[in-house]
Amino acid sequence: MTPGRISVAVLVVLTLVFIFENTRDTRIRLLIPEVTMPLWTALLGMGVIGALCGAYFVRRRG
Questions:
Q1: What's the rounded Cα separation, in Å, for the pair 15 and 39?
Q2: C-alpha 12: how far from its chain's center?
């Protein structure tokens, strides 16, 4: 087990705990439409969008 694999395993466990702790539905409004979805799904979606934006700016810079 390398330190990289251990840190990935810890991140996977923390991600699973986060998902199981945030399963209740929440209402989200995006301009006009209002949708109901699990909180972890909304947070995951925003995280992916943020990661894509960050990757775009890093790639464009370098």
A1: 13
A2: 12
| Listed residue (10, 25, 19) closest to 47, CA to CA | 19
Q: Where are the beta strands (DSSP E) in 7-49?
A: 25-29, 34-38
**Contact predicate 39/24, CB 8 Å:** yes
Give pTM, 2 decimals.
0.65
Q: Which two tokens stand for residue 32?
A: 């006009």
Which residues are 26's β-sheet partners? Answer: 37
- What tens digit of pLDDT does each residue of 19-57 get? 889 899 999 997 888 999 999 898 888 889 998 998 898
- Alpha carbons within 13 angstroms on the beta-carbon side of residue 29 total 2
